Amino acid sequence: MNFEDAAGLAQLEAMSPQLLDELAFGVVRMRTGGEVVAYNEWESKMAGLSKERVLARNFFVDIAPCTNNFMVAERFMSEPELDATLDYIFTLRMKPTDVKLRLLRLLRSASADHMYLLVKR
Amino acid sequence: MNDEVNTSDDESLLQFVYQFPVAVMRMSGAGVIDLMNPRAVGMLMGLGLPFQADQGWRILDGLDPTLGDLVRGHLQEPGLVAEQRPVERHDPKGRVHHLALTAIVVNANSCMVAIEDVTNRVLQERQLAHERQSLAVVLEALKGYFVLMLDLDLRITQPNPSIERMFGQGATIVGRSCSELLHPGAVESVDLVVKAELAVRQGWASFEAEYRCADGMVIWGDTMLTTIVDEAGTPSAFVIVARDVSERHRREEALVDEALTDPLTGLLNRRGLAARVAPWLDEARAGKPLTISALALDIDFFKRVNDRHGHDGGDAVLRHLGQLLTKQFRRGDIVARLGGEEFVVLLKDSPDAVAMALAERMRHLLEHTPLAWKDETIAVTTSIGVASGAGLTEVEPLLHDADLGLYRAKAEGRNRVVCTQGEI
Fold first, then answer.
1. Could you say which DSSP state residue B94 is in?
2. Rounded distance between C-alpha atoms, residue B324 and residue B374, angstroms
3. Has residue B85 been placed in a domain?
4. H or E element in which residue B315 lies
5. Which of A85, B67, B152, B369 holds its CA 20 to 30 A away from the CA of B61?
6. CA of B152, closest CA in chain A: separation in Å?
7. Is residue B188 domain-shared with residue B241, that is, in the same domain?
């Protein structure tokens, strides 16, 4: 699967954490409020945080406060259906780094109600 | 993506900085941001500032142009350039953000900038300032009320224009003890310390007190003393809210005066005498050994005065005697006209000799102070009976004894003082 795949959400929902680890971009799978349920290898390496430190924590508040604004967190909270790509800056190990973000959310997805943040350098 | 594996300590430190609650960034003299924490990105992006890591100066200028200049001007002088500098910015959604900017020049090629979003604090402070101002307006506009903010030692802590006008003699009254505002000659003195203790126990104490204004006017305050407590419930201050009830008091006093005063002479009437002597009798009933002396006076040959000068002349003589009595006796003495030409003076705890001497002086004074009335001079004399009693619970027997003395003075030729002491 690619970062830009049109059917991204359905594919991601079908993937186990192990499969997510094989992707060449960052994937953060969250419950509706922002609680992290999967954090793939690529993202973990980039951020310098092991999965254990991230899983079950609130992504916008505890892990990546840089996303806790109207451009990312507020869009997830206010738009029940969301598929948007934007240029953003991540501070990976405090170094400002240009990234592309893809925000994915579909309220009535097949299985669980997950939100996805995809990160590409 | 083959980054080095973090040790747990490094990772912990990384997470600590990720979660740092203040936005921080570091940039070079050339304006390249090499390090910044996530909150810094979140904040700058949230404010809609165009972000490029090598455009540090543009970002800083976008936040606050003056700060950018300040930092550039201090690149050769390392140190704190700005501390909690207030800046107001709108985000792309039109919301106002209040920021506090701190900048430190580390060396010519490195400076640190911290950005705090203090919107909530600023709004709270504004709300507080607004409330303070509203309160000041209310306090100023309140007619007939005054408010005093006190510390636990009952010293005034905050000024407001109305109390400054009332109590300040051109100087501020902040820091002065509230007790100083009370009228020293109050009919019933109020111990604020006792009231404060009560207010601490039950949260409030209400009482009436006489306050003395800077211009000397005395006002009656229907006073509520309330205890202010801190978060832990410990008393931290007091507030006095007092309603000016002087007008009511003056009306009541006037009514009381009317009922207890003899309109002709302005002395007490029989009811007034009873009212004034009641506390003395209470003291005696409470076991306090109290001696009361009574002087019963009347004007010799008063009927002749009336016959010769008419009732107007008679009334003038009664007023004349009333004035001399008022002058002669102290404020604490009871001077009354019981009717006709009958006057009584009651003295508290005066030795018999003193009561006699005062009576004799009064007799002498009247004899030698004729009244100039119209074109005439009216000279009158007085006969006085004096009696004393200790531990009295009724005043009537004493008045009766003094009357006996008065009759004897009349019988013995008038214009004299007779004491019935020892015959009671």
1. S
2. 19
3. yes
4. helix B302-328
5. A85
6. 44
7. yes
Task: Tell me which residue range forms the domain holding B410.
Answer: 261-419
pLDDT one-digit tens code per residue, B354-394? 999 999 999 999 999 999 999 999 999 999 999 999 888 88
- Cβ contact A91–B91 (<8 Å): no
Q: Is residue B132 part of a domain?
A: no
CATH of the domain at B414: 3.30.70.270
Q: How many domains are there within chain B?
A: 3
**CB atoms closer than 10 angstroms to residue B84:** 11
End-of-domain residue from the set B198, B222, B249: B249
Same domain, B278 and B368: yes
Residue B178: DSSP 8-state? G
DSSP string, B354-397: HHHHHHHHHHHHHHT--EEETTEEE---EEEEEEEEES-S-SHH
Provide the greatest CA pair distance for chain A: 38
In a domain, B172, yes or no: yes
Interface membership of A33 toward B (CB under 8 Å): no
Task: Provide the pLDDT confidence category of residue B424 given band limits of 50, 70 and 90.
Answer: very low
**Per-residue pLDDT band at A111 (split at 50, 70, 90):** low
For A89, which of B19, B35, B41 is closest by C-beta distance?
B41
ipTM: 0.78
- CA nearest neighbour of B200 among B143, B158, B172, B238: B238
The per-residue pLDDT for B152 is: 94
Whether A66 and chain B come into contact, CB under 8 Å, resolves to: yes
CATH number at residue B80: 3.30.450.20
The per-residue pLDDT for range B389-414, each reduced to its tens digit, is 988 888 999 999 999 999 999 999 99
Coarse DSSP helix, strand, coil percentages of chain A, rounded to the nearest 5 percent:
30, 35, 35
Task: Classify residue B366: in a domain, yes or no.
Answer: yes
Task: Classify domain A8-120 at the CATH superfamily level.
Answer: PAS domain (3.30.450.20)
How is B52-64 classified by DSSP, letter by letter?
A: -TT-HHHHHHHH-
**Stretch B326-338: mean pLDDT:** 89
User: Contact A95/B46, CB-based, under 8 Å?
Assistant: no
**Backbone φ/ψ region at B60: left (φ over 0), alpha (ψ -120 to 50), beta:** alpha
Residue A103 CA neighbour count, 13 Å, CB half: 21
Give the residue on B whose Cα is nearest the Cα of A93. Answer: B14
Mean pLDDT of chain B: 88
Residue type for B37, please?
A: N
Which residue of B41, B52, B55, B96 is the best one to mutate when testing the A interface, meaning the one whose CB has the most A CBs within 10 A? B41
Same domain for B115 and B153? no
Domain boundary among B249, B277, B308: B249
3 state DSSP class of B177: strand
| Closest Cβ–Cβ partner in A42, A46, A66 for B41 | A66
Q: How confident is the model at residue B276 (pLDDT cuts 50, 70, 90)?
A: confident
Are B156 and B84 in a shared domain? no
Q: Domain map of chain A by residue range?
A: 8-120
